[in-house]
Amino acid sequence: MTLIESTAVPTDLCKSAPPAYPRPEGQDSYTISEVVAFTGLTAHTLRWYERIGLMPHVDRSHTGQRRFSNRDLDWLAFVGKLRLTGMPVADMVRYAELVREGEHTFEARQELLEQTRRDVVARIAELQDTLAVLDHKIEFYAGAHRASERV
Predict the structure, then answer these.
(1) Distance separating alpha carbons of residues 40 and 54, to the nearest angstrom
(2) Using CA of residue 119, residue 120, residue 124, residue 127, what is the dihedral sign?
(3) Three-state DSSP class for 59?
(4) 3-state secondary structure of 68
(5) Largest Cα–Cα distance of the chain, in whole Å?
(6) Sign of the C-alpha dihedral computed for residues 142, 143, 144 and 149 taken in this order
(7) What would the pLDDT profile of 112-134 be if each residue is shown by its tens digit?
(8) Could you tell me the pTM of the whole model?
(9) Hey, is 37 helix, strand or coil?
(10) Chain-centre distance of CA 112, in angstroms?
(11) DSSP letter, residue 27
């Protein structure tokens, strides 16, 4: 092991690569249509997220048009992950409120994410069980098909 290897900062192999933003920091002002194209969300969904408090304050241009930043894109990507977990919208909004309240809410945020993680782990177990049943049935039908070909 070389000195460089021994002093290297460990890499989190589970962490995804940083997103490739369309624009660099400082030049990151996106219209709602650009965010729609980049995220796949609809303009209606983006406006709804803002209305229910799921989207932090979105800047506006001098004409009142929404202007999103790379930080907003990061938030939307995180919200997308929360949606995939099956987290209820009310819990996502609660999480967003806790974020806005500041660092003193770290414990509450952690608990909310830990509960969501427990729910995800339970769903994974249910899906693994379901997959085993499907595999068993598929193998049954494959065996029945092979047996019928021998007759």
Answers:
(1) 17
(2) positive
(3) strand
(4) strand
(5) 79
(6) positive
(7) 999 999 999 999 999 999 999 99
(8) 0.75
(9) helix
(10) 15
(11) S
